[in-house]
Amino acid sequence: MCGIIGYVGSKNNTELGIRALKRLEYRGYDSAGMAIIEESGLESVKVSGKVDKLRDKLKETDFKGTPTLFHSRWSTHGGPTRENAHPQFDCKGEVAVVHNGIIENFTKIKERLIEEGHKFSSETDTEVIAHLIEKFYDGDLEEAVRKAINLLEGAYGLAVISTKEPDKIIAAKMSSPVVVSVNEAGGFVSSDPAAIVEHSKNMIFLEDEEIAIVTEDGFRIKDRDQNVLEKEEVEIDWDLKEAQKSGYDHFMMKEMMEQPKSIKDSIRGRITDDGDVKLGGLDEISHELESLEKLTILACGTSHFASMVGKYLIEEISGIPVEVGLASEFRYRKRPYDKKEGFLFVSQSGETADTLKALEEVKKRHALTLGIVNVVGSSIARKTDGGVYNHAGPEIGVASTKAFTSQLSILTLLAVYLGRQRDLSKPESAKILTELEQLPKKVESILENREEIKEKAERYKDYEHFLFMGRRYNYPTAMEGALKLKEISYIHAEGYSAAEMKHGPIALIDEDFPTFAVCLQSSVYGKMISNVEEIRARKGPMIVLATEGDEDIKNHSDDVIEIPQTMEVLSPVLAVVPFQLFAYYMAVLKGFDPDKPRNLSKVVTVE
Ligand code: F6R
Fold it and tell me: Mutation test of ligand 1: which of 324, 348, 477, 595 has the most ligand atoms closer than 8 Å to its C-beta?
């Protein structure tokens, strides 16, 4: 959630650090800070607030030293004050630590350190790490870090510098991501490849319990038994332009507008001319997939809603029974496993702690694991037996948009792949795939009409509650529409199956509670119209998402948003786009920054 950067080298450290931090700002942004080893010793600047404030403060300095650490914080222990911002220091101001994660046993460690005479100046869990390193330092920084982390329980991705050994950064990882890259510009450590991709696309991903010793011109990575490891570099397939706003006001708008391209990129090269699906990342486990009798999909948030659509897709197209669960809940279930059950983990970042922990739990049972992951080389991608990368490009806006439509596209490919291993005929498969290839154009036409959605947002901006409802494939779309609205415009929104309304929630409906209903030409059209009328009978304002050319729907609504016709199984890819746009415009109209919603972070690396 917090962003960490370490740099050792001869470039302009502060500008380089700020640029990298700006790219991580989406992960957490209530305070920021940096530390640098100057000839005079360890210097630092910390602010409560955004990275720009740190940049302004740094303009008043003339730092020239190296190494340096930068951090953007999403508070867990202690409020977003200057004192609690990272880096955190030891008593003597010689050791600086930046940290992403949570140290669960920090209170006990802190009490002990205070008894031993250490003076603390923050409320953070992180500060104990700096004091432990101070305590254990006996001429070897690496060893001191090793001894310190041996005492830690919880999650950490961390980077450490010390005036005692100013030629290096020590980085360590447990459950929170850390990447290392050494290139012509020097040695880098980061919590996210996106921050340092401008310097090199080749990264080393640390595994849990590994320690990296990074200098200007090289690095060593050791495991917990201090063996030096030969690790392969992973090439990140993003270019820097993709991680910039490119003229848009917000990353979220840029990423929504990119959807025609990101969907195309997700399916490119994966559909054969004769109507089959080719997924290279599944080749090695294709036999196991052939004999699969059940699939369980685990994910969080938007990825969970995509997975819910995935259940309908895979069951309908391949005939395999699918269970979908929240990764956070699954982990604590005492659940029997089926013999021929596979597990699919869906995650944009590939680092979501809840999803990662569920994956680790499943691996203990030796079940087959697959991933649909956007970030190449991320933990979930590395730990699954096989998988499919989204290739959607970096998603920076906190609200997930292009990752969702990309996940739906890949889940469709997977459903067809599994279907072809079973009873799905070539003509049936070709029909779905041909229509899938049409979606980028159709998404583009929705995006071209965004002014119409903006007008709707202007008309409805003063309402304080919204209901989103749909059925079957578009029940998850309704959930996602509600999530988008609440997370960036802070408006109360409920996502429901339209059928469930009469079992309770319809009691909420009155003239101040508008409903968005996904009422497309589909197997549930008639039933949706009945549910729409039930709401209208209670005076609820009704905005209907309808299929282009549906004239009758105007008799059942106050407002209509039309989207192009497609197959029902693919309809969420189109239906979600107006909801994304509506949430975006509502947030902007209310004066909120949709890229940086309060209390949220892009990558949720704590449980
Ligand atoms: C909402 C959103 C989150 C994420 C969730 C899982 O817009 O972005 O709900 O979908 O935190 O993240 P990933 O997909 O990275 O595992």
Answer: 348
Quick one: pLDDT at residue 26?
Answer: 65
Contact 238, 194 (CB under 8 A): yes
Ligand 1 contact via 75 beta carbon (within 6 Å): no
DSSP-based three-state secondary structure for 511? coil
* C-alpha distance from residue 503 to each of 367, 446, 497, 500 (Å): 38, 33, 11, 5
Sorting pLDDT into bands at 50, 70 and 90, what band is 456?
Answer: very high
- Distance (angstroms) between ligand 1 centre and the Cα of 368 equals 23
At 352-361, the pLDDT tens digits run 999 999 999 9
Query: Probe ligand 1: pick from 74, 176, 352, 410, max atoms within 8 Å of CB?
Result: 352
CB 412 within 8 A of CB 432: yes
Report CA(259)–ligand 1 centroid distance (Å): 17
Do 301 and 381 contact (CB within 8 A), yes or no?
A: no
Considering the entire predicted model, what is its pTM? 0.83
| Tokens coding 255 | 């990423």
For 190-241, the pLDDT digits (tens) are: 998 888 988 888 999 999 999 999 999 999 999 999 999 999 998 887 766 6
* Domains delineated in the chain: 3-236 (3.60.20.10), 243-448 (3.40.50.10490), 457-589 (3.40.50.10490)
Shortest-distance Cα residue to atom 5 of ligand 1: 301
How many A from CA of 485 to the centre of ligand 1? 14
Distance 299 CA to ligand 1 centre (A): 8
Residue with tokens 């609440």: 486
Q: Is 347 in the pocket of ligand 1 (CB under 6 A)?
A: yes
> Relative to the CA of 602, which ligand 1 atom is closest?
8
Q: Kindly report the protein residue whose alpha carbon is nearest to atom 11 of ligand 1.
A: 301
Q: Please, where are the H alpha helices in 268-383?
A: 286-290, 301-318, 327-330, 353-364, 379-383
* Secondary structure in 3-state letters for 285-316: HHHHHHCCCEEEEEECHHHHHHHHHHHHHHHH
Contact predicate 453/545, CB 8 Å: no
CB of residue 302 inside a 6 A radius of ligand 1 = yes
Q: How many beta carbons lie within 10 A of that of residue 160, not counting itself? A: 30
Kindly state the tokens that stand for 280.
């290279």
Q: Is 306 in the pocket of ligand 1 (CB under 6 A)?
A: no
Q: From CA 203, how far away is CA 556, in angstroms rounded?
A: 55
465-470, strands of its sheet edge to edge: 492-497, 465-470, 515-518, 542-547, 559-563
> Are the CB atoms for 81 and 144 separated by under 8 Å?
no
Q: Of 337, 323, 322, 332, which Cα lies nearest the Cα of 354?
A: 332
Phi, psi of 374 (to 5 degrees): -90, -40
- Quickly tell me which residue has 């039933």 as its tokens: 527
Active site residues: 2, 602
Is the minimum distance from the CB of 580 to ligand 1 under 6 angstroms?
A: no
**Ligand 1 centroid vs 46 CA: distance in angstroms?**
29
Burial of 149 (0-12, 13-18, 19+ CB in 10 A): buried
Nearest to 222 by CA among 238, 199, 206, 242: 206
**7, 190 in Cβ contact below 8 A?**
no
